[in-house]
Each structure stands twice: as C-alpha cells, then as structure tokens.
Amino acid sequence: MLFHLNYLLVIPKILLKPRDSVCFFLFHTRYGKLVVDRPKSHFFEHPFACVQLSIFYSSSLSRNPSFNSDSVPESHVVDKDYFGDNNDGYHKFNQMGTQDSSDLSLFGSDNGEFDKSEKCDFDIFAEEVEEGEDGSDSDDNFMVLDSFDKYRVNREEIRRVVLEEDEFRHPLVREVCRLIELRSAWSPKLEGELRNLLRSLKPRQICAVLRSQADERVALQFFYWADRQWRYRHDPIVYYMMLEILSKTKLCQGAKRVLRLMARRGIECRPEAFSYLMVAYSRAGKLRNAMYVLSMMQKAAVAPNLLICNTAIHVLVVGNKLAKALRFLERMQLAGITPNVLTYNCLIKGYCDLHRIKDAIKLIDEMPLKGCSPDKVSYYTVMGYLCKEKRIKEVRDLMEKMVNDSNLFHDQVTYNTLIHMLSKHGHGDEALEFLKEAEKGGFRVDKVGYSAVVHSFCKEGRIEEAKELVNQMSQMGCIPDVVTYTAVVNGFCRVGELDQAKKMLQQMYHHGCKPNTVSYTAFLNGLCHNGKSLEAREMINTSEEEWWTPNAITYSVVMHGLRREGKLSEACDVVREMIKKGFFPTPVEINLLIQSLCREGKMDGAKKFMQECLNKGCAVNVVNFTSLIRGFCQKCDLEEALSLLDDMYLCKKDPDTVTYTTIIDALSKNGRVEEATELMMKMLSKGLVPTVVTYRTVIHRYCQVGRVEDLLKLLEKMLSKQKCRTAYNQVIENLCSFGYLEEAGKILGKVLRTASKADASTCHVLMESYLNKGIPLLAYKVACRMFNRNLIPDLKLCKKVSERLILEGKSEEADTLMLRFVERGHIQPKSEEHLQR
What we know:
The protein is mostly helical and about 850 residues long. It is built from 45 helices and 2 strands. It has a two-stranded antiparallel ribbon.
C-alpha cells in the first residue's frame, strides 16, 4: 500500500514532463480501481492506455495547472465491471433483452459523464433530436456534404463481415449459444463458464454468436456484457457486426450506444457505421433522427462517402420525402460525390411509391446522359408496380425498352421476376402467360416459378386449375417439390375440402416428396378453421410417428383453434408443451388466452397461466398485465388488481396510462374515490400522460358521485400534463346527465372561453336539461350568455324556451330572446308579428 502511495505522490511531477513519462505508466482496469505498475517494455501493446493517459494529462492540466497531488480526479477511476467477479451480478445477465446499458464509458464518473479531450468529442453520439413532425423540409443536415474532399477517391468503403457456415457450427460458438439460451435459469456457475469461453473465442466467432441469436435484444445485451468483462475487448469487426444486426431492427437507441461506445474505445467510426445507425432510425420511423446522423458525422470529423449518401436518399425515399431526396442528390453532386446506379434506383422506387411511373421511366431515360446506365433492377422496380396494377401492356413496352435502349436482354431472371410479381398480387393468369412465353423462348422455368402460379390459383380458390398445372409440371420434367404440393394442400384447406387435402399429403409420399413441417402446419390450420382443433392436437401428439417436428407456428395454430372453440384448458396445455419444446409464445398470443380466460371468469387460471409464462422466460409485457387487471376489475376483485399493479413494478414491467386508467375506473365505480384520486396523482407524478379515455373515465365517474370540486382540482393537474380541449365540456354534459344542474351552471364560464361549436353543443345540453327540470329562465340565461360570446343557439330549442317562458308569465324575456335572433338575421321580418303584439 505504501508503495502505491509513493507512486501517487510522484504522478503530478512526472505528468508535467509528458515526453519523459509516456513510457512510464501502464494504466489498466481491474476491480474498478486505477492501478499503476512499474515500467514495462510492452507498453505500446496497449494503445488505448496511451489515449487515456493523454486524456488524463490534458484534462487535469487544463483544470488545475498546479495539480495538487493530494486529490486524484474521480472521473478517472474506472467503473466496476457490469457483473464483477463476485456472484451478485448473475441476475443481470438473466434479464438479457429487457435491460439497456446506461453508462458505457471505461473511464466514467459516477453520473455517467467523462472528460473530453480536444481531439475527440464523444458526446456527439449522446445528443438527441427533439421529436416533432418528421415532415420538416429543413436541409440543415445536408451541410455535412460540404466537408467532402473532392480530390479524394470516390468509392464505397463497406466494412462487412462474411461468416462461413463452419464458424456457426464451431463447438465453442454452439456452447456459448447454449449458455445464453439458459439465461432464464442463470447462476454464477454458468456465468463463470461463459466468461471462460468468451476469452477463448476469436472475433469472427463472437460475430457468429451475435448472428445466431433469434432476438436481437439478447444479442445486444450479450455484447454489452462481454464488453465489461476483465481482460477482454471487442475487436472492431464485432462492433460493425453488432451495428449491422441492429440496422435490421428498430433498436435505434441500441445502435446509437454501440456507436458511442466505439468512439469511447478509440475505434475508427467509418461512414458505414453511421449508415447502420441511420437505417435503424429509419426502421423505427424516426426520420428526423435518421437525417441528424449526418450532422453527427460532421461533428465527428468523418467525411461522407457514396455509401452514406445512398443511405440518406434511401431513408428519405422510405419516409415519402422524395422532393427532399432530390435536393440531397443535387447537393451531393455539387460536393463532388458522383451518384451510381444504386442512387438512381432508390429515386426510381420513390417515384413508383408515389405512383409517378412516367417520372420513373423518364429518370431511366436520363441516366445514360448522366454517365450512369440503368441496370435490370431499374427496370424491374418499375415493372413491379406495373404488375401490381395489372398494366401488362406497359410491362411489355418496358421489356422492349430494356433491349432497345439499354441493351439488356431478357433472361430467365427477367421472366421469373415477372411471374413472381404477378402471382404475388393475385394475377395468376397473366403470370401463367409469361411462364408459357418463357418456355417458348427457350428458357426453362424452374419449379419455384410454377409453385408461385400454383399458389396464386390456390389463393383464388381455383384448386382444379392448380392441380392441372402440377400435372403439367411432371409431364414437362419439372418435378414438383414440397413447396408446390404444400400450396395445393393449403388451397384445399381454404375451400374446406379437408379430405382432399389429406389425400394430397398421402400422394406426396407416392411421388417421392415427403411432407415437411410447413405442409402439416397448413393442414392443421385447415382443421382448426373447420372446428376440428382436437384432431389437430392429436396429430401433434403423433408427429414423431409421422417423422415430422412441429415448430412454433404449428403450436400457435392449434392453440388459436382450441381458443376459438372455447377449449381454454387444452389451449393452455398446448402453450405449456410449446414452451417445454423451446418455443415461446408471443405477447399477443399470451394476451389472447388471458382475455379468453377472463371472459370465462377463470381469473385464477388466467393469473396462473401468466405467472407460468413469466417464470419460463416468455415475453410477458405490460398489455398482458393490464388485461389480467381488467379481468379482476370486472369481477370487482380490486384488491387482487392492486396487488398485480405492485407486482408489475417488481417484474420491471412499468404500468402505462391504460393500466392506471383501468384501475382508477374500477375504484371510482365502487365508490373508492379517494383511492382513485391518490392513484391518479401517482400516475401523474411518474410522468405518464393522460389520454382521451383517461379524461372520459375520470370525468364520468366523479360526476356520477357528484364530486365536482375534487374533479376540478384533479383536472387542473391533468391538463398541466396533457391538454384536453373538451374536458370541461364533458364535465358539464356528464353533470347534466346525472342531474347536477347547479354545479354544471357554475362552470359554464370555463366552456364559453373558446366559443367553439363543441361549446355550443354543450350549452344546448344544459339548456335542454333546464327545460326538462322546468326551469326555462335558466335556459334563457344560458342562451343570452351564448349570444354575448357570439355563439348562435339552436333556433328550435330557443322557441321551446320562449314558449315555456310565456306560459310562466315571463313574456318580456321570451320577446327579448326572439329579438336577438331577429337582430342577427336568423328570423324573417314576417315572424316579428308576435313581438309587435
């Protein structure tokens, strides 16, 4: 200990001479401490230590030139591992896929921040774009193109990792994947095994583990966990693989954190890394955030290339911002980035999405003049939209244009593309016409093309024509495969001919084609839709005898069939067997079963079923809890509903506004208004925003019991969180329906502030209520207040008020009311006779 203290006293003196001290220190992390070792010759094998040393020196010197040796900056104390070497962290890996990393910095402070050097600004990845309308036409993000070096070689630089099949089958990779699948029953022993395996894996094998995960969230959490292990650091290709995986999902926040982690680790962020983040934002529907990635590139001093420009144009096209994409094209050309055929193909797709087929064809004609000839994809894109609209003549004209203008000859791919496009959109006859034309032209259409036409006929219920086409395939030497036969089986099931479908399954064996899981699943789906779910269930039990294995879709089909027939216990048994086989039901499927059990009044069974799914690691979400809570509320078992609300926090499934609204409605309905108010205040304190349903529920229940003052206080707090223009309108109308007219009249002024049509409707409701109660004078006063706010009340209703006033001897008020209509021209002069009398 004394040895380390002496070194700490020497540190400030040595740091004042950086050239002499560069090779003196070796900083490395262990157990969350800063360790200083003796000089070592292999210091430069750890370049990241050099980077952190320079950051440490520059930041400390800039903050305090004298640098007091008695205080070591806390921002440079290394955070502990995410799990550490003790046994207290294994439960965190158990939550893979549900937890995010909050602080990814290696040298981070307690609040998640870190010191910045002058050369690298990591916080650019932490900035968020204010959410708003994504339709902003601002071109501020295009300024990144100004940083492009026109003299640089204009090429696409793509860092992609192509994995071989052997790498997925490697024993280490398979063992790591097996341990990850056991995360629901995680233990310190299993974590230790995984940690030892991690250090034996090569970077490409780590990539194979990430790619092998069916749930990208699990892959991301494993990535975070591995990064925090001692004596292990991800290779750069692992970061790019993780970004590539996330770019195919909506997990844009995870992609942003990976990019930020790359910057903190000193790994080069190339344009393709930003491209992956941009695509992830686009998939999540956040167009503004996606385009802001360009500004992030500019702040990170990363020059754009053709890849990032093509990605930006693709994102704009997908977001239906074609005009902005065209402006971006002009800016990138001015910056010296030459577009290629991929750029123009994106724009062609944008024109087609907007049904501007002529503009798309015009762009194809202009491409050679711009030094970029169109390829077959350019034509196929337009053909796809023409096939969708069954514009066959224009398709043929475009085929001729391919040959004459672009010297692109028709081949088997061209015909296969047309056959699949037409079959997909239900134009089987036209697809068959092209199929025969291809065969006459000497092209051999494979069984995939035939299967597409067969499937199209089956979808339309033309089973006999589909069978005839299958026979023609055999005669022409194109042997049908399992996909073709499965399409016919599915077609028979669609029209209810289950016997014919079963015979087709048997004939498949005679033709040397063994039915697979998809074939049997299609048949089981037909059984379930025809009320024979128990027979389908029995077929699953005998699947081993038939040499086929049910999958998740198979179990889901049978479960839904049993649920529709009201056989809920059997449906739950199917789900249990499904989980035992390693297949997990989706939250939607779980919710459907919970709702069905609640409708049958089997609340205990519904709760037990959801608890089993939760214990087995199924993706139980807030909606599932809310459905169960609603079931208990409908049974007036509010204590159980409130208990489930507490359980949600224990399970880290934070309730949403719908959950709170459901319980608040039930409490108010049963007279427990104080508890409902307390729960509403708790909901608002958690930052949850009330919805229209929340307002309607609260207003209805509070008006029902006449708690107007409490309601108005609660509405003020609710309106501070989320505006609702008709809130007070609903209050008055509900008070009128429950007979609290005096209270309704007191808050009429809050409604007349805006003087809208909705306010006029509310005033009419109040006037009718006064008339029904025999108080026409108050109805008259409401009408006068409407006139004062430049609102014209209903003439027929006011005539009723006038007649009732005359019967009560209040002729002056009646004449005054009608005179207000005459002054505004709503009554003809001849209608003034009764006023003159």
